[in-house]
Design brief:
Elements lengths: L3 H11 L19 H12 L1 H12 L8 H14 L6 E5 L10 E6 L2 E10 L14 E3 L2 E3 L3 H20 L6 E8 L9 H4 L1 H8 L3 E4 L4 E3 L2 E4 L6 E9 L3 E2 L12 H15 L7 E10 L1 E5 L4 E5 L4 E2 L2 E9 L3 H16 L6 E10 L6 H16 L6 E2 L18 E3 L6 E2 L7 E3 L2 H16 L9
Parallel strand pairs: 3-6, 3-7, 7-19, 9-18
Antiparallel strand pairs: 1-2, 2-6, 4-5, 5-21, 8-9, 10-16, 10-17, 11-15, 12-16, 13-14, 20-21
Helix pairs in contact: 2-5, 2-11, 3-5, 5-11, 8-9, 10-11
């Protein structure tokens, strides 16, 4: 893949006796060019239009399972990109996936090729009471206004600013606005096939979920953790409770579940970036549990040794290697179950990790220079333990990647979800200038 981490490997091979660091790769000045100032002026003049597009899309309910609403938001965003020279395409999903589909827009151009990622859906389904845009001064509220309809608008208006100065003509771009980020269709091999394919032919991926500013400092996101689930099922020997722990009966299903969970706590916990959680536990003589609904029923008596336990949990990791290593340890613990019990564990992967690569860090350095050129402070690196999973992780193995390029919002997934409207123009400026500089950066202009 034509990205910065591979370039570093080439440089290292060419100079085996000396250390080449990313600090030695030429970086853009933290001052604005005339072309960049022209984009800033255009963005300031069109701030009201960007907010109007945001309001329009927020007022279209697009919970993941509201297929018509998701498609309507996609149509609105396609209209917003008209005239930019991109070929838009709605990608339907097979009926069995039960998702609306995705909006992709592409144009060819010189290396590097950019993949810009957003999503059209929200967590607020059609029967939710939180459905409309509202504004009080600089703060606006609405379903998905932060996660992530504002990011979609930032993405489109950054492209519009580049187009305004003629810079978009020579830039290769793929815009990927997925329709099911909040509840991905399964199997992922189908619902994320087109996104992964776009990642395989891109050099730089930028995700437009909310930016982070705390205590006056701006933060860059170079890593996001994975999201997987696990189901631990244990069976034991049902018997009168007076015989529990005997050689003929054993510990029972619930005690064995507790023992295994304690070993997870002792032997899996502690690696930075890794967390796991037992979200639900059902145990008794009769257990019915539906993992897709995260709910179940149990029956048992205090004088009966329970014969079944089901624990449903989640696991997050910072790299594919960390995730697989942790799964292996958990599986080994489960395999060493006690006599008269049987234990199995199954894993279901959802979002892969976006590991904190050197290429990602180099992108963050470029973004920091842009931030400083806009009169703000150098950007710090955000702790990945404090962000959730995202679609950009599916393409992170193939490209250098940077997330969190959207506006400043809070309260995502809640009925108080809000956005600082004046942060829209800041986010658009950062994205437009970053793309402009990277498109002509010597570290990326290679094949």
């Amino acid at each position: 893949m034509r990205h910065l981490s591979r370039l570093l490997s080439v440089l290292l091979l060419a100079c085996p006796t000396s250390l080449v660091s990313f600090a030695q790769i030429p970086m853009q000045e933290s001052v604005l060019t005339a072309e960049e100032q022209a984009m800033i002026d255009w963005i300031d003049a069109n701030e009201g239009n960007a907010i109007a597009l945001l309001k329009q899309t927020v007022n279209i309910g697009s919970g993941t399972m509201n297929h018509a609403g998701v498609r309507a938001v996609g149509d609105t965003m396609a209209d917003a990109m008209a005239g930019l020279g991109l070929r838009t395409q709605w990608i339907d999903m097979p009926a069995e996936i039960d998702r609306a589909g995705h909006l992709f827009a592409t144009k060819e151009g010189a290396s590097p090729h950019f993949l810009l990622i957003g999503h059209l859906d929200t967590v607020f389904e059609a029967d939710d009471g939180f459905q409309a845009f509202s504004r009080e001064g600089n703060i606006a509220q609405g379903p998905g206004i932060s996660d992530m309809k504002s990011g979609n608008v930032v993405l489109v208006y950054a492209l519009k600013a580049l187009h305004e100065i003629g810079a978009l003509d020579n830039i290769g771009v793929t815009v990927a606005l997925t329709g099911d980020e909040e509840k991905p269709g399964k199997p992922l091999s189908i619902s994320r096939k087109d996104l992964i394919k776009a990642g395989e032919s891109a050099d730089i991926s930028l995700g437009f979920e909310s930016a982070i500013t705390t205590d006056g400092a701006d933060w860059a996101t170079i890593a996001r953790r994975s999201s997987s689930s696990w189901t631990l099922t244990i069976t034991g020997k049902q018997a009168h409770s007076s015989a529990i722990f005997s050689d003929d009966v054993g510990a029972g299903a619930i005690n064995e579940a507790a023992r295994i969970l304690h070993r997870f706590y002792e032997e899996v916990r502690g690696d930075y970036g890794l967390t796991f959680n037992a979200g639900t536990i059902q145990g008794g003589t009769t257990v019915n549990y539906d993992t897709s609904q995260n709910r179940g029923t149990t029956f048992g008596k205090t004088n009966v040794v329970p014969s079944k336990a089901v624990i449903h949990g989640g696991i997050r990791a910072l790299s594919p290697e960390q995730l697989e290593r942790s799964k292996a340890v958990m599986a080994a613990i489960v395999a060493a179950h006690l006599p008269h019990t049987r234990a199995t564990i199954e894993f279901e992967d959802s979002y892969p990790p976006m590991a904190p690569s050197e290429g990602n860090r180099a992108l963050a350095e470029q973004l920091s220079l842009v931030n400083q050129a806009l009169g703000r402070s150098p950007m710090k690196i955000w702790d990945p333990l404090r962000r959730g999973a995202a679609d950009i992780a599916f393409v992170a193995p193939y490209t250098d990647a940077l997330a969190g390029l959207g506006a400043l919002g809070k309260g995502g997934h809640t009925p108080t979800e809000s956005l600082e409207l004046d942060s829209m123009s800041l986010a658009i400026k950062r994205a437009a200038i970053l793309i402009y500089r990277l498109s002509d950066h010597p570290a990326y202009k290679h094949r």
